[in-house]
Give the backbone structure.
Amino acid sequence: MPFPHLLAPLDLGHAMLRNRVVMGSMHTGLEETGDWARVAEFYAARARGGVGLIVTGGMAPNREGGVFPGAAGLFTDQDIANHARVTSAVHADGGKIAMQVLHAGRYAYSPECVAPSAIKSPISPFPPKELDEEGIEKQISDIVTAAARAREAGYDGVEVMGSEGYFLNQFLVTHTNRRTDRWGGDYANRMRLPIEVVRRVRAATGSDFILIYRLSLIDLVPDGSSWDEVVSLAKSIEQAGASLINTGIGWHEARVPTIATSVPRAAFAHLTARLRPEVTIPVITSNRINAPEVAEAILASGQADLVSMARPFLADPDFVAKAASGRAAEIAPCIACNQACLDHTFSGKLTSCLVNPRACAETELVYTPTVAPKRVAIVGAGPAGMMAAITAAGRGHRVTLFDKADEVGGQLNFAKQVPGKEEFHGLVGWFSTMLDRTGVALRLGAEATPHDLQSFDEIVIATGVRPRDPGIPTDPDALVLNYIDVLHGAPTGARVAIVGAGGIGFDVAETLVHAGESPTEHPELWRTEWGVSTPWQDRGGLSPNGPAPRLPARQVILLQRKAGRPGRHLGKTTGWIHRASLAMMGVKMVGGVNYERITRDGLAVSYGANRERPETLAVDAVVLCAGQEPDRKLSDQLVALGIPHHVIGGADVAAELDAKRAIDQGARLAARL
Ligand code: NAP
Ligand code: SF4
């Protein structure tokens, strides 16, 4: 059997899990749409795909504890009936599902938020109200009621959210708990609340109900928990009646990335491994695990009893079924980009997935097998073209994919060169596998002409983008490169100015300052870079020396014309990581720049609308990352010949093109062909 540890059942005594795979909690925003058929199908698809235990997105126990005003919860009989639709759909497909109860405490985005002490969080504008004894009792009772209602709605269990800096976590550490009553002071008092919650949830839900406690193993904030405290809490939580302990990593306010793509795979599994022998109930590990091989290795080496993956189940609901049937290479990989999931959540948009536009759209975007197969030509094997090709071919069309390059991947092949973006290798690999498995005919290494396309029933142009030439006056002996040259390894010298600070400018800067091995591939290097130690060395797992990046390989200055600091328009949940990473490597980031001339001495610039403070930035090379323009040469030729065709991806609209939009557009067109 493939993946024998991952696919082994687990007997919890009161419940049998069919394998060791947990789908971790994610807030999708689906519940708030009120479209319960859609919510039910989202979870049922994951149950059909074979996952052992699903944990829902966090449900609020009461108004003040909701992550934002109006956050979903089990408040009324109608709520219970709605959730019952979800649990029956999951059960009908052979799955098990636990509801997460999430009290946000001072992270609640609301003026009504409550906390152990009135200390405002750095990531919320609202100072919390300090709870009195009666207020604390109300919170416990509301959490317990939510758990009891979850049982009524047919859930197999609950997960009590005790990590990530939320309400229960806030009681545990002096960073947020300055109380002097029986809920604060020494650790026995500070851990009273989570223990009381677990004890009373168990009492209210009965002995045959799965009760997971998500415990913060490394807080990554000042004055966080010590390892002795973590262990003491875990033992008490077990005694209080939990069935499973799940791993939580880092508070939301931590200045250390914990799930972004640049975090090494399974970077925190060693913490779960250290906790495992301290308790007798099974422990679940989590964070940056996105492939069955990685999960299997964790379990085989005894680091955990179960593996929780969240975003990988957006990317592919059939993760487990594919792993079990020898089709692991067909699992659409989560590249940990956050672009369509967390970035959407934090912008108030419904979650989806860059790799799988059907995520959370299961009832709306359906790939129906075709009854009238067509011959489809797709030109351009970048993300838009490849997604259109595998979707159309998967529906039964006969697809030929053309690209002038010798390999598929398009712009994804540039992204995978960037240190910290190694996951893009897996994405290109997955597209290649799927092109092969769906029988797409590849015509690589030659530019397609209108003549080549004439005999097809449908023509799709996905020819992508060309780098924009910003037209800066340039002396003939100056060294000017574009991002493609740099990512192909063109020499730049030791001092570089980058014109344009969009996603690609940041990627190029990251590439230029790093030399040698990527920290993403070397967890120790990565931890040193971000100042991460362990809670058994330092409270909260923060090294007292702080971040200690390596010396930059080059001196880089990143420029934009817009006033203000570059990087404001990067991903909502990842932009800060890119900015912090470059700042640690000494990259200067400057806005409000006018580019006057590129000379052999460097880049002549001035600042502001009045072209003030003219100076020459002494650099050896200038790299142009000034955005892109659509490459529509072939489309224009087809238009001139009156040949109908579709245009998708960057060839359609280059502005702010990214793989998310390209893949989505490719999938949606192919679903209609
Ligand atoms: P972009 O995000 O549009 O940025 C283009 C940059 O060039 C801007 O900083 C812009 O700033 C500057 N610029 C535009 N026109 C210019 C001109 N005529 N002269 C000088 N500067 C000019 O494009 P990109 O960086 O090429 O990225 C392309 C797409 O890929 C984007 O949507 C990006 O989000 C996506 N991408 C995403 C990631 C990621 O990590 N999520 C990584 C790479 C790329 P000023 O106009 O202020 O000068
Ligand atoms: Fe993973 Fe990106 Fe999809 Fe989110 S959007 S699930 S991070 S691939």
Observations:
- The longest strand covers residues 210-218.
